[in-house]
Amino acid sequence: MANITAQMVKELRDMTGAGMMDCKSALGEADGDMNAAVDWLRAKGLAKAAKKAGRVAAEGLVGVSTGPNSGAIVEVNSETDFVARNDEFKDFVTRSAALGLKVEGQIDALLAHPFEDGGASVSDTLTALIAKIGENMAVRRVTALSVDKGAVATYIHNAAGPELGKIGVLVALSSEADPAALTALGKQIAMHVAAANPIALSADHVPADVVARERAIYAEQARESGKPENIIEKMVDGRMKKFFAESVLLEQVFVMDGETPVGKVVERVAGEVGAPIEVTGFVRFAVGEGVDRPPGGDFADEVKAMAGH
């Protein structure tokens, strides 16, 4: 019997739009033959969904769900915003986000998990929804955050329903402080993340290759000015300090007041509640992220307006 690899399953899924477990079963039945596996899926009545798979699904919704000291976020895509307003689609996203908590943010586990107790998997349920509605859809990504003590706060921008919208954010705060105070702070930080889109939590969390690339660019720019190497190094250090201030969460200027670094805001609230607070992580999902879209307005101003600032 052929060895069915994860890459083979992914390839068949990309070709057909069928569920992950269906693709694995099809490849098993076809002894690894891709064309025979496609025919097997068609024979099982999945052809209608498969025909939709080549169409770009860049619309959709982000859903969030929270539990004790934890939160999950999921992005489910559709071809059109019209489908994203469909109640069945919204229900699918809402329930998928809740299941995202159960599977601790693991995409494969989510797709394989029963959508309802004893029922079809999330993947199979989505395939049936594709066939019913007539558009390609996909569970694009899911992740979760948790803390031993503290809170995981959420924020949804452009809400389409409870815990559903076009941009979703999770922020994890570790602390012995009152969870209500932590959640209030966490939501404000989450709103900031939605607007400012930081690339990392702190300078130490920025990938080494990103730091190296930025330093190389700044060094080349400095050399073009004809400065000596010892001066260039100081210039690059100064540019990197500015880069981190603009790019990492704890050093960014808080969108809500326009003057205080986020890290200082956390320190101030920690003093007010009488307990240390640590931001241990954040996640930001925007629908269709990575797909070319027409530019919008000033998003930071929009978030501040919604927050009443």
Essential attributes:
single chain, 309 residues, alpha+beta, Tetrahydropterin Synthase, Chain A, GTP Cyclohydrolase I, Chain A, domain 1, 2 domains, four-stranded antiparallel beta sheet, three-stranded antiparallel beta sheet, 12 helices, 7 strands, globular
Q: Biggest sheet, open or closed, and with what strands and sense?
A: 4 strands, antiparallel
Strand segment count = 7
Number of domains: 2
The CATH topology of the largest domain: Tetrahydropterin Synthase, Chain A
Estimated helix fraction: 40-55%
The overall average pLDDT, rounded, is 87
Report strand %. 15-25%
Radius of gyration from CA coordinates = 23 Å
Q: What is the 3D form?
A: globular
Low-confidence regions:
292-300
* CATH H-level superfamily title of the largest domain: Elongation factor Ts, dimerisation domain
Structural class: alpha+beta
> How many individual helices?
12
